[in-house]
């Protein structure tokens, strides 16, 4: 693979494919911010509540270290042509690791995060390397997918710390990625109007598309013709800033809540389902919607 050539991502819309080297740099920058923020905490701040129900900031930091270690492990084994489970010990090992890690002191968390940064730097392939396409167990994807997963997790959980890192730290490529990756949480497609952007998107179980693609807007004929009595439900339109819409779809609290409407009437934001599993890609639409807020997995 030539340096600078695009890196394919499994099941990703062309609209949401980020530059893999930019992802690597931004993920490292996010981890550095998390580490600096952690270093500034005292014991009470560490034990204080995060933005995730039932988790302290220490739980969030333990999870950040755990998911980063898991993705480094995926890349390390892939470099040798090996496949390993996402978490050592599976889902039970993941939960046990978080609970154990939540007992760390501030100094112990900082040391773990600094060691993780070095391990991740060593684990990722070099620019243009064919190693990005090596298979991993995570969602039956590749090393590139593992990096993007880490980027997503560290950026989201940095905000979850509720320690001064805001949604304004999410770059635009992350917002587009979240709309694409998390569209599976919606039962039906919705039209997304991003403030300040002329083109609309369609977000749903099939991922992210532009609203100009033929057949992309549900029941577009009925909408365009404003056909009364047609019986075809019109698509819900969600409007807001990209980061706010992405935060809502991630089950987080937006800075300004997006608004929704159907035709000319105000509507409730659609319910969202569970977070996509880290173990395999979804094969069909998720089940009944669950509570809006969910821990990123």
Automatic annotation (TrEMBL):
Pfam families: MDMPI_N. Residues 28-161 form the Mycothiol-dependent maleylpyruvate isomerase metal-binding domain. GO terms for molecular function: isomerase activity; metal ion binding. InterPro entries: DinB/YfiT-like (IPR034660), Maleyloyr_isom (IPR017517), MDMPI_metal-binding (IPR024344). Residues 273-289 have a biased composition (Pro residues). Coiled coil: none annotated. Keywords: Isomerase. This is Maleylpyruvate isomerase family mycothiol-dependent enzyme. It comes from Cellulosimicrobium protaetiae.
């Amino acid at each position: 693979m030539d340096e600078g050539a695009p890196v394919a991502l499994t099941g990703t819309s062309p609209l949401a494919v980020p530059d893999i080297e930019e992802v690597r740099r931004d993920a490292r920058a996010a981890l550095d911010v998390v580490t600096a923020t952690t270093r500034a905490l005292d014991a009470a701040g560490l034990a204080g509540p995060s933005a995730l129900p039932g988790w302290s900031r220490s739980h969030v930091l333990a999870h950040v270290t755990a998911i980063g270690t898991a993705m480094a492990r995926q890349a390390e084994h892939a470099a040798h042509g090996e496949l390993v489970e996402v978490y050592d010990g599976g889902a039970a090992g993941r939960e046990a690791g978080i609970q154990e890690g939540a007992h760390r002191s501030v100094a112990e968390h900082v040391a773990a995060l600094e060691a993780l940064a070095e391990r991740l730097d060593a684990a990722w392939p070099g620019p243009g390397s064919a190693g990005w396409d090596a298979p991993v167990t995570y969602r039956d994807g590749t090393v590139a997918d593992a990096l993007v997963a880490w980027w997503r997790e560290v950026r989201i959980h940095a905000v979850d710390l509720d320690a001064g890192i805001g949604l304004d730290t999410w770059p635009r490529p992350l917002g587009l990625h979240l709309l694409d990756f998390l569209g599976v949480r919606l039962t039906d497609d919705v039209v997304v109007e991003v403030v300040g952007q002329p083109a609309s998107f369609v977000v749903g179980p099939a991922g992210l598309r532009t609203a100009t693609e033929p057949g992309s807007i549900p029941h577009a004929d009925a909408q365009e013709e404003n056909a009364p009595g047609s019986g075809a439900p019109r698509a819900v339109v969600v409007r807001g800033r990209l980061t706010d819409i992405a935060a809502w779809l991630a089950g987080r609290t937006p800075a300004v809540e997006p608004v929704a409407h159907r035709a000319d009437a105000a509507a409730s934001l659609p319910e969202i389902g569970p977070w996509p599993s880290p173990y395999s890609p979804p094969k069909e639409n998720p089940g009944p919607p669950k509570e809006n807020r969910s821990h990123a997995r």
